Amino acid sequence: MEVAMPSQHVLAVDDEEAILDLLEYNLSREGYRVTCVQTGEEAVKAAKSQAPDLILLDLMLPGLDGLEVCRILRKAPATSGIPIVMLTAKGEESDIVKGLELGADDYVTKPFSPKVLLARIKAVLRRKESPSVDASAPLKVHDVVIHPGRHEVLVVDEPVQLTLTEFKILHFLASRPGWVFTRYQIVDAVHGTDYPVTDRSVDVQIVGLRKKLGHAGRYIETVRGVGYRFKE
């Protein structure tokens, strides 16, 4: 069993004691140190007093809700870099989108599988510890190779011709495999010049990109109601 390093500290925020008990039990078994709080105000105070390695943040909280907590923590220099995984009830797609745009790193819907939650936590922590991506360096994910300097994409060593906007979207998603991005985040990152990129046209770009990539198009996954991610 992969056990977390003792230094990894998780702040769990939920107003339901039963969920906090479940989180504390499963996280402790994996070797994490866990602090549990039940309100948004307590979450902000705890994060600022002793910055955790990751925050599990329920959206529906008394007082300050999860979105406001996320906004406050992202604005404060001392807490801006702490990974945040949102816990949300199914159907709150608009809140998921808002949370991701505020800077949350991932989300898990309730009711959740403890095994799935632990896997997502480990993935987010791995991304935090990974060295920053060199925007000019060749990037290889699965059997896709992207050369930013040459504006070249190879799939199983075969070149794929992409427009500038398609190339930028692919590079943006592939440089952060597993991360979920909203359409607005993709627009902000791409700023298309050869094609007027809007949140609606992102879907058109993705369809064309998948088609040109052939079998590798399946690596670009749709996250219903939220946006897209490149398969990890």
Give an overview in words:
The protein has 232 residues and is α/β, with parallel strands linked by helices. The chain folds into 2 domains: 9-129, Response regulator (Rossmann fold, 3-Layer(aba) Sandwich); 139-230, Orthogonal Bundle (Arc Repressor Mutant, subunit A), CATH 1.10.10.10. It is 40% helix and 22% strand. It has 8 helices and 12 strands. It has helices spanning 17-29, 40-49, 66-75, 93-102, 114-129, 164-174, 183-190, 199-213, and strands spanning 9-13, 33-37, 54-58, 84-89, 106-110, 139-141, 144-147, 152-155, 158-160, 181-182, 220-223, 227-230. It has a 5-stranded parallel β-sheet, sandwiched between helices. A 4-stranded antiparallel β-sheet has the order 6-7-8-9, covered by helices on one side. It has a 3-stranded antiparallel β-sheet with strand order 10-12-11. Strand 6 and strand 7 form a beta hairpin. The protein starts with 8 loop residues before the first strand and ends with a strand. 30% of the residues are buried.
The profile of the biggest β sheet is: 5 strands, parallel
CATH superfamily of the largest domain: Response regulator
By secondary-structure content and strand pairing, the structural class works out as alpha/beta
Overall tally of domains: 2
Strand order in the largest sheet: 2-1-3-4-5
Q: What is the architecture of the largest domain at the second tier of CATH?
A: 3-Layer(aba) Sandwich
Helices and strands, in order, run as EHEHEHEHEHEEEEHEHHEE
Q: Which parts are unreliable, with pLDDT below 50 for 5 consecutive residues or more?
A: none
Global shape: elongated
Specify Rg, calculated over alpha carbons.
19 Å
CATH topology of the largest domain: Rossmann fold
How far apart lie the N and C ends?
21 Å
State mean pLDDT (0 to 100 scale).
87
Supply the number of helical segments: 8
* Total E-strand runs: 12
How much strand content do the residues show? 15-25%
Tell me roughly what share of residues is in helical segments: 40-55%
CATH class category name of the largest domain: Alpha Beta
